[in-house]
Amino acid sequence: MNRVMVKSVFDAFEYVMDHYYPVGLEEFAERLDSYAVISIQDSHNGGFGFTFCENAFCQGVLTLCFDDIVQPVEGAVLFDRQMAQQIIDFIKAHQDAYTLLVHCFGGQSRSAAVGAFAVRMMGEDDSPYFHQGSPNRHVYDTLVQVWEQQK
Length: 151
Prior knowledge:
Blueprint: E1 3-8, H1 9-17, E2 35-41, E3 58-65, H2 81-93, E4 99-104, H3 110-121, H4 127-132, H5 137-150
Parallel strand pairs: 1-4, 2-3, 2-4
Helix pairs in contact: 2-5, 3-5
């Protein structure tokens, strides 16, 4: 994996559509790089109404539904250790993808936390995510805890 992209749902959709091609005409796609998607959707409304799927460029999709909270809230889904393990396993399984595309609704908190963790997991500096944004600390800390217990 060469890079991690953190996007809003709208920007992620645009990125994926840049890879679109008519059947049998892959060479007409605007982008030809491979990618894998971690799609973080809201639980309270059943997601965003669409899901990404694998194709010639998309090597894998992990869709998780949890909300942008840091402690339990009635009617909302708090990120947990099982979800963290799914993300860790997904990143490991898709290291050959050129790009890891991570999105949530706004691309600011949940996806930034997952993006920062992915960069850290790959041995790179995740500090820019914290200087330029506001990653959800509960999501980030849970990912780090689960990953460090596996070392």
